[in-house]
Amino acid sequence: MSTIVELEREVMQLPEDQRVALLNRVLKVSEPSRASDIQDLWDDEIARRIERLDKGVTQTIPASEVFRELDQRLA
């Protein structure tokens, strides 16, 4: 089995696009198994927000207004 140093040396010899693809694969399999739990939490949050919008509890703000306010804050 190769050592980390040997693997690194081999990887660094790959073209950049292949290094990036390999990195993405490694990161994908390295994600915590809780990823599905996190997705479930986001799904619940999205459903909650949609419900609040449907009930009229939450007020929307036009995107143009949001961006105008951000521009003013960052200027």
Rg from alpha-carbon coordinates: 22 Å
Shape: elongated
> In oligomeric terms, what are we looking at?
single chain
Could you list the spans in which at least 5 consecutive residues all have pLDDT below 50?
none
**Major pleated sheet:** none
The percentage of residues in β strands lies in under 5%
Give the helix tally: 4
Overall number of domains: 1
Roughly how many Å apart are the termini?
55 Å
Number of DSSP-assigned strands: 0
Derived structural class: mainly alpha
Structure description:
The protein has one domain. The radius of gyration is 22 Å and the shape is elongated. By secondary structure, it is mainly alpha-helical. The longest helix is centred in the middle third of the chain and has 21 residues.
In short:
With 75 residues, this protein is an all-alpha fold. It contains 4 helices and no strands. The chain is elongated and about 60 Å long.
Describe the secondary structure blueprint for this structure:
Layout: H1 4-12, H2 16-30, H3 35-55, H4 63-74
